[in-house]
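Mods, move this if it's the wrong board.
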Amino acid sequence: MKKILSLSLVTAVMAAGLFASPTVLTEKQIQENIDLFPKLFKGQDISVDRAVREDNFDHLEFSAKTPKGMVRFEAFVIKGKEPSIIVGKAFKQSGQPYELPKSTGVIENGVAFSLGHGQEEFYLVTDPECPYCQDYEDDIAKKLDLDKYTIHVIPIALNFHKQAKPMLQWVLSAPTKKDRATRMNTVMSGDSKWKDFIPMKEQREKNDKVLEAAENAAYALGATGTPALFDSNFKKVQNRNKIFE
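Not the wrong board. Structure tokens:
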């Protein structure tokens, strides 16, 4: 019998000390996991974004298209006489959540432009309509040492910010990445030039792909809000103002 287990079992399973150095699963190994649960996955528009193998289980990250948009979730496949799949988050004995290795390529592809040219690199997930992001952008413009730092900007449009996407359509339609940075600063400063901009279909579709890549990068980083700052190892910086010190 195959089982689908809830999050209530996750902590108990992981507390057994099953974690070790993971290995990336091949496409064949991923498909083997999916084939174990035909009633769950058959006919579903679901894809696997990342997957690794531990000593006693496989850890997979799924994307599923729904009427409300893309939904992502993690699952843990435990094999044996009765293969089971646990959907939810997992925790180590230390209490820290278990995370899949960061997808470097996905994160880099989500960078729309960069600020500065210093050796210390950071990744910033930001939304132009977010007031906290606007304040942070102002601090970057006034306080950041551009000779010391490079900030790679990953712009997203949060669902509840209805003006963010039109703002970013104007920003991303700039001819160069340097011009994108200038337009982003203009938008963040409260300028309304973006309101008069209507992109052509080809440009809009091109920008939408950039925004999709940025959304994937933000998810890969584990950003849960904006603004969110990450270091060059993709670890979240708890005190994002430290770059101004």
